[in-house]
Specification:
372 residues, alpha/beta, TIM Barrel, eight-stranded parallel β-barrel, two-stranded antiparallel sheet, 13 helices, 12 strands, 46% helix, binds flavin mononucleotide
């Protein structure tokens, strides 16, 4: 492997949130020049891949809630965006319950083949009971939802990698099953998952390729990352870490902070409160009281996944430095949400990303000089 390739592999990666759900990424009445239409999303995906983003993450929601009135389905939407792009990977969110592993494995193997391996998935375990009730899906309790997701992932891996696959789980069973076509052998479907709770972390430490977590301070993120990596080591498993951040990059810090203040001042109070109530079904309600929104304040909840807490809010230089700090505590990917998606993805690609790469190269040189 060339030195340049090794450096690129070691670079922190960027994903952007795909607005396939209406209402943008903050529960606020501030203007959001972001649109959930397919046409807008094609332009955004093309802008993102040009700007250096390696992934886009779509969301799965079945029912209207909290300012999200319309929701395009994640797998079909991801596939449609892949057809209009060349390099970027799309991560489609999949919810065990509505999805069965046999269908998901078949659907994703075909998309993998048709897009030269650019489809990935985010196996989500459910936090919004209202939508499960609305579509007549059973709502297992928190840890059982993760137990099911873990079996779901083990089933997918088994189907994709084994002929005559047999599996006798609590939730899923397979008998002598052979899938054709399988995903491309050198471009497997990467498996992401979301969460923060004990159950989410344990699943990441056993079966997922990537663990996405909500925004947080570097100190709190480090605790979580160390905890997961320690457990993964015991399981002889490797897992990469992605952290959510709502990025407000502006030419001056004052401008960036003023935008944050305006988002919060114009928060849709009723919707934020309802969203906060719904999140109690997630890890916050478990015995250990950890979980995605266990310690979220009202202000935090204005961004769906605590993205303000990561504090990528300021000038390009400030943001780049904080991203390298995140990398140094073990973060492999920053999942970025924006107020005005296309404009800000482009600004990020022009102003912030080159600084991140400069800082990373400088750090690599320093490390090399030290070890020489
Ligand atoms: C980055 C990220 C993306 C997520 N995307 C979705 C989604 O599209 N649909 C969904 O129902 N849940 C989604 N979730 C929710 C998680 O799957 C999980 O249910 C939630 O984080 C609760 O976690 P906890 O058990 O750790 O509290 C996402 C979570 C994260 C961190």
């Amino acid at each position: 492997m060339s030195q340049q390739q090794a450096q690129q592999d070691n670079n922190v990666k960027f994903a952007y949130w795909v607005p396939n759900v209406s209402g943008g990424f903050v529960v606020s009445n501030i203007e959001q020049r972001t649109d959930w239409s397919y046409e807008y999303n094609v332009r955004l995906a093309q802008a993102a891949e040009k700007s250096g983003f390696e992934y886009g993450l779509t969301q799965i929601r079945f029912a209207s809630s909290y300012g999200a009135e319309n929701q395009h389905e994640s797998v079909s939407f991801s596939h449609a965006l892949l057809a209009k792009t060349e390099k970027i990977k799309l991560i489609a969110a999949i919810l065990p319950g509505p999805w069965k592993p046999a269908l998901a494995a078949k659907q994703l193997a075909s998309i993998n083949q048709m897009t030269n391996g650019r489809i990935a998935i985010n196996v989500v375990s459910g936090w919004f009971r209202g939508e499960f009730d609305a579509i007549g899906e059973e709502w297992p309790e928190h840890n059982q939802r993760y137990a099911r997701s873990e079996e779901f992932i083990r089933s997918l891996r088994g189907i994709w990698n084994t002929d005559h696959f047999n599996f006798d789980g609590k939730f899923y069973q397979f008998k002598d099953y052979t899938l054709r076509p399988q995903p491309l052998p050198n471009k497997p479907v990467e498996i992401f998952q979301g969460g923060s709770s004990r159950a989410a972390r344990d699943m990441a430490a056993s079966v997922s390729d990537w663990y996405f977590t909500n925004g947080n301070t570097p100190e709190e993120l480090k605790k979580q990352i160390d905890d997961i990596r320690e457990k993964a080591k015991v399981n002889n498993h490797q897992v990469k870490i992605g952290v959510n951040a709502f990025i407000i990059a502006r030419d001056t810090e004052e401008e960036a902070k003023a935008v944050l203040q305006e988002i919060i001042d114009k928060a849709n109070i009723k919707a934020v409160k309802n969203f906060g109530d719904a999140t109690r079904e997630a890890g916050a309600s478990t015995a250990e009281g950890e979980g995605n929104w266990a310690k979220s304040s009202f202000e935090d909840l204005v961004q769906y996944n605590d993205g303000f807490k990561t504090n990528l809010i300021g000038t390009p230089q400030q943001i780049a430095e904080r991203i390298v700090l995140l990398k140094n505590i073990g973060v492999d990917l920053v999942l970025s949400g924006f107020l005005h998606c296309i404009e800000e993805v482009e600004y990020f690609g022009q102003k912030v990303l080159p600084l991140v790469r400069e800082l990373e190269a400088k750090q690599a040189e320093q490390l090399q000089a030290k070890s020489a």
